[in-house]
């Protein structure tokens, strides 16, 4: 979707600060697939989504200072270097494409 790509290209980072554990959000997957770094709450269910590197980082749930610092650091990094994330796009596609397709098939086929 062109609008989705345009939206993500305008972002420095996507913050998804969950205060309770959750499994997986499509918004996070879309951001990673489009090369937008993400800041996620540090819950066990999120650990496989990113590595603390250019693709994103984790913050303590319910800690607004930690969240603010993480968002600022990605914003400054993008301004300094025009940061791109092709490695996170490839990793996300490999890890989740087949799983997502299987979920869609299950829903469509009953």
Q: Quick gist of this model?
A:
The protein has helices spanning 2-9, 26-33, 64-81, 86-109, and strands spanning 14-16, 38-41, 56-59.
Q: Can you tell me about this structure?
A:
A 3-stranded parallel β-sheet has the order 1-2-3, with helices on both faces. It is built from 4 helices and 3 strands, in the order αβαββαα. The radius of gyration is 14 Å and the shape is globular. It has helices at 2-9, 26-33, 64-81, 86-109, and strands at 14-16, 38-41, 56-59. Helix 2 (26-33) links the parallel strand 1 (14-16) and strand 2 (38-41). It starts with a helix and ends with a helix. The model has no long low-confidence stretch (mean pLDDT 76). By secondary structure, the protein is mostly helical.
Order of helices and strands: HEHEEHH
Number of helices: 4
Low-confidence runs: none
| Large-scale geometry | globular
Instruction: Determine Rg (CA atoms, Å).
Output: 14 Å
Indicate the topology:
Layout: H1 2-9, E1 14-16, H2 26-33, E2 38-41, E3 56-59, H3 64-81, H4 86-109
Parallel strand pairs: 1-2, 2-3
Please describe the structure with a list of short key phrases separated by commas or semicolons.
about 110 residues; mainly alpha; three-stranded parallel β-sheet; about 55% helix
């Amino acid at each position: 979707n062109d609008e989705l790509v345009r939206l993500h290209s305008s972002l420095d980072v996507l913050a998804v600060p969950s205060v309770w554990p959750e499994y997986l959000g499509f918004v996070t997957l879309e951001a990673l697939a489009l090369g937008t770094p993400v800041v996620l709450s540090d819950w066990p269910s999120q650990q496989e989504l990113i590595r603390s590197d250019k693709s994103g980082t984790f913050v303590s749930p319910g800690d607004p200072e930690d969240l603010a610092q993480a968002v600022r650091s990605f914003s400054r990094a993008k301004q300094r270097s025009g940061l791109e994330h092709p490695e996170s796009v490839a990793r996300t596609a490999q890890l989740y494409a087949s799983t997502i397709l299987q979920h869609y098939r299950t829903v469509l086929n009953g």
